[in-house]
Amino acid sequence: MGVISEVMATRARDNTVVRMCVLLCLISFWACGHDGGGTPVSPTPQPSATTPAPPVPPSPQPSGSRSIRVGETVSGTITPQDASCLFTTVDGGWQGLCDAFEITAPDSGVLTATVRWSGDSSLAISFKTVVGGQIDLECCRPPMVARMPVEAGTTYRIEVTYVGRPPAYPQVPPVDYTIETALATDLDAQSSGSVQAIVFGDRARTQRLSNARLQVLDGRKAGTVASFDPTSGFYVFDNLPAGYVQVLVTADGFASLTERLPVGASVPRELVLERSAPLPDATNSLTGLALASGSPSGPYSAYIGVKVEIVDGPLAGVFTFTDEFFGGYSFSGLPAGEIHVRASAERLQTQTLGVVISGNTRLDFYMQPK
Question: Which of 52, 126, 184, 289 lies 20 to 30 Å from 319, alpha-carbon distance?
């Protein structure tokens, strides 16, 4: 099932996305080396035709963390007795056995955390807010170096997580590690980085928006508007000053949202907008697969990373991607009625189909190579 690496590479132009792609390969123990939408996956179980895929669960409230100070070296061990922590990659949520630490920034700047360990185990480090909201993630081989902008007097959460599922999981060999932290406060005035965001129009995070507008409100880049990459589905700011920026998010039919975003994070920030007025009868769903051309019966092969977009009706422009597990997609919170849906990928012929939405509706695409 070597299908993750190049699909993700075609869906993003930033090298940080490729690093997250490597993480996905390690977590699911799949081999990398896909040709960008030209080779399907062939999973054994088939997803339900009527039940939408569940949304990525939010990070849990933190528990059992250990306080550490900037500059000290901390030792720890991942063991089977540790609790699991949730974290988010570019394309989904995962969890693993983890140790958690809290650290308070004495000054504003960029916090660096270096994790070292021996052996073949893969670890990830996740930077979060003190209440568990993820800021960034790095993975997977030692020495692992993660950097995060921090603000004076603010407490952050660092989680060191065991990545992967060996046969006996959660029974794993203990993994000894160390964390070294340092804070750089004398940042070059010209230091800059990027911000990436995904904008959703529903709390279940099935409806990505392509018509939002993201604008920087503060600092020397105030007024800068993000560009939208239709291939990856990301909104991107480039060359923003290091630190945090205040961003205003607007879209027709939605209440505006203001968020403070870290510059330089490799995992895109997920932003959820609330509709100004709810759509009538928005209780229906649409699910399906992007299948390789062939018989609808028997074992199937499905493409991951295919963009599926609603092209008309009240949700015109809403889109998602087929997932990395089954090549399936899911929209929830749809009003009833007829719409047209388009499936597209770089190396596949675009296909548009009509469907009448009523209850839990199924629509599969049978894709042809270009």
Answer: 126
Q: Per residue in 277-309, pLDDT tens?
A: 999 999 999 999 999 976 556 567 899 999 999
Which residues of the chain fall below pLDDT 50? Answer: 1-36, 38, 43-62
Q: Which helix (H) or strand (E) holds 8?
A: helix 5-10
Domains located in the chain, CATH noted: 1-54+278-370 (2.60.40.10), 58-184 (2.60.120.380), 192-272 (2.60.40.10)
**CA 261 to CA 265: how far, in whole Å?**
9
Q: Residue 6 is inside which H or E element, if any?
A: helix 5-10
**Whether 324 contacts 295, CB under 8 Å:** no
Nearest to 260 by CA among 150, 110, 182, 127: 150
* Nearest of 182, 201, 161, 195 to residue 69 by alpha carbon: 182
Q: What is the maximal distance between C-alpha atoms in the chain?
A: 63
Is the whole model's pTM more than 0.85, yes or no? no
Distance CA 275, CA 278 (A): 6
Phi-psi map region of 204: left, alpha, beta (phi>0 left; psi -120 to 50 alpha): alpha
Q: What is the CA radius of gyration of the chain?
A: 21
Look at residue 296 in the predicted model and tell me its pLDDT: 58
